[in-house]
Inverse folding.
């Protein structure tokens, strides 16, 4: 089968590899229909370090190529002997990790925070294996391209959970990539009063307007702080969401929050990024600063949202798997929505 691997900085290649077989009785194999390109993967492809480990080699070859892709939907082609809830031919999506149910965090009710989770990458490929506990049914009528945004949408659902948004609050989202855009759309639907989104890329601002976000800001042309204060009687927003993971977005999210408001950093900041925080300002404004790490525990709620809102404008940028390098370059520079790799698309028919 075909599979894409990262060999070093900006070096992604499609190669021939043996297709996965059922190795454990609780596994399923699926034919990948569509797989998204995640911002965290772009950071990794660009050579940023996302987890604390030995320093990454920026120029030299990476010792083992890493498999890419964790946002996907597809059709089941094989099931292990112990798999009961899934059958060949069903349309599904897969969470990239799940709780271990054995560690202290899991036993104390913190399954969403489990750090001993199964990391499953490798969906930029014709086929992928997954343990059944991570697999979720998709509605039969839902296009698989939309099913492939379950994972990033779940991250935005959790950002709003963490923000504790209530009706009538004002919301600012910094960064209109998929995570920020989804968060803004959900905030709007959840009864926010003003929703302001900011992004320097014209294509992203255009998509945010198409998705119905009322106030769309170009931070290069207009001062975001001023725009936010103009729309909030000088108070700032009760909910401030950052979906970039880099400065100046991280600091701006703090600047625009109202007294007593909540800041959620939802972007994955690479290792080494630091932010100046004034404890005096934090004390005086008594704002809350939180992070949000994925939404693997809330896939079922997220899948409901795939059908009730029109996400089709977000999944218009589709490249065949063979053009993965062009797709990555497009995602890095010109993309507005979620860039998808089309693998089998809707064409796959189980034998
Ligand atoms: Zn992702
Ligand atoms: Zn655990």
């Amino acid at each position: 089968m075909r599979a894409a691997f990262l060999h070093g900085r900006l070096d992604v290649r499609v190669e021939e590899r043996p297709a996965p077989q059922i190795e454990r009785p609780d596994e399923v194999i699926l034919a990948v229909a569509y797989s998204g390109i995640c911002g965290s993967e772009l950071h990794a492809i660009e050579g940023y370090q996302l987890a604390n480990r030995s320093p990454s080699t920026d120029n030299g070859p990476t010792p083992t190529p890493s498999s890419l892709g964790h946002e996907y939907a597809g059709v089941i082609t094989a099931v292990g002997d112990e798999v009961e809830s899934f059958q060949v031919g069903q349309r599904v999506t897969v969470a990239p990790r799940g709780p271990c149910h054995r560690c202290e965090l899991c036993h104390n009710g913190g399954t969403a925070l489990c750090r001993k989770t199964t990391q499953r990458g490798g969906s930029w490929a014709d086929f992928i294996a997954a343990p059944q506990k991570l697999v979720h049914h998709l509605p039969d009528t839902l296009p698989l391209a939309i099913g492939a945004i379950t994972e990033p949408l779940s991250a935005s659902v959790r950002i709003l959970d963490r923000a504790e948004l209530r009706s009538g609050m004002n919301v600012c989202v910094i960064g209109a990539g998929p995570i920020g855009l989804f968060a803004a759309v959900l905030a709007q639907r959840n009864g926010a009063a003003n929703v302001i989104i900011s992004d320097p890329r014209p294509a992203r601002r255009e998509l945010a307007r198409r998705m119905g976000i009322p106030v769309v800001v170009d931070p290069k042309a207009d001062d975001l702080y001023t725009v936010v204060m103009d729309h909030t009687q000088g108070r700032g927003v009760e909910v401030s969401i950052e979906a970039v993971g880099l400065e100046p977005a991280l600091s701006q999210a703090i600047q625009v929050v109202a007294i007593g408001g909540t800041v959620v950093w939802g972007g994955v900041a690479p290792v080494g990024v630091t932010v100046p925080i004034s404890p005096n300002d934090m004390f005086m404004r008594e704002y809350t600063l939180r992070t949000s790490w994925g939404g693997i525990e809330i896939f079922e709620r997220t899948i409901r949202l795939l059908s009730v809102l029109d996400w089709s404008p977000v999944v218009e940028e589709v490249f065949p798997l063979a053009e993965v390098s062009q797709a990555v370059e497009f995602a890095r520079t010109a993309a507005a929505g979620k860039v998808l790799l089309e693998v089998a698309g809707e064409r796959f028919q189980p034998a």
